[in-house]
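User: I'm writing a tutorial on reading structure tokens. Could you give me a worked example: one chain, its sequence, then its tokens, then a sentence or two explaining what the tokens reveal?
Assistant: Sure. Here is the example chain.
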Amino acid sequence: MLEVKSPWDSNLIDSVETHGNEEIEKIISNASKVAKAKGIDFPPKDRIKVLKSFCELVKENINNLAELATSEGGKPITDSIIEIKRGVEGVESCIEVLKSDCGSVIPMNINEASSNRIAFTQKEPIGLVLAISAFNHPFNLIIHQVIPAIAAGCTVIVKPAEDTPLSCKNIVKMLQESGLPENRCYFVMPENLELATKLVSDERIDFFSFIGSSKVGWFLRSKLSPGTRCSLEHGGMAPTFITDNTDLDICAKSIARGGFYHAGQVCVSVQRIYLSKKVSNEFMNKFLSEVNKLSLGNPMDNKTVVGPLIRNSEVKRVDEWVNESIKNGSELILGGNILSDSTYDKTIIMNPKKSDKVSQYEIFGPVVTINEYENIEKAIENANSVNVSFQASVFTDKINEILMFYEKINASSVFHNDHTAFRVDWMPFAGLKHSGHGVGGIKYSMHDMQIEKMLVLRK
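And here are its predicted structure tokens:
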């Protein structure tokens, strides 16, 4: 049995049964047999009916689902409520894509070889999907991985993070209550790492969806069976640039939210701020004021914005990284303290060295770094020097600066006058370099989980 404990106070919430080798083999065998039907036994009209019923069930239980997500994951309750509502939108997006997405007509009769032929493609489910998820959005990440698979007509096996399995298990249960056949979606929790790796490498897996750390993601990708396709979503070190041509009040408020929301445990959380020296003092005064407004504490409190880190060991790791940077000469502007076994203070570090861990790796904690610059193009070169690349943003009111930044920054998405943690579920969401492989987002995930199968008719 796996015990699930609150990251806030370590109290036992519930326990989840783990699966051994024989149970996992049975799940894979059953799921792969169903997948071979290519969704013919579960046509789109039936999938839409199930997903609509699931949406209604979620809407009726938003507060309960949010409380469960907060209890196991530590995200403040107000943000968990937003997460559940966003999950509903994700399911609705799947339904819309399912209604409108289609194949295409391939041109024929345009040369001698293609004469007397008609060709077209149709979408077909790729087969058996394995989804392994992360802890930081225990409801919505499962929605992003499981619901596109179901909508595409695939069978799916889902393994949530060990810290947050309860929301996932509840989603599977609610899907079945909404009419989803039990043999189309399986919850699995391998009893050890060896079995989890064996599950990933099974040749019957047709598509592997992973959300989590780059170290684990790239390792598991190396274990995939030949022919298994995949998408990997890892983390980044989101660079946010502040020029001397922007509204600093809007800027400070936005970045405070983007940097400390969910204690920085967001893959596109603002981590590295590049600040023009011309406005440094003015911005820092406004920024500190906004950060100090963010309440830190019990995630079940409606006033809390910054909650606990997922594990006590993460609190110690973050503190070690901060102290390393301070010893190396950076200036501690705010925080830098362990507040309890589960919480770390909101922390701001000024001008860390490029070699510091806080400058080289994803912090995944309530820490932001400020890097002052005089030359924006040299600062962009510095921002590009790491091995991760995800979302980036720039605060400026000059169109030439926006376009220059868009052209030169290493990022898959660039935001103007907004923080890097912005996301809506119908947009592409892709990490580059070590940050991931493939493209996330509802319709993009559905596309990955289908093939376009062509038929050429000859007269």
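What the tokens reveal: The chain is about 40% helix and 20% strand. The longest strand covers residues 117-125.
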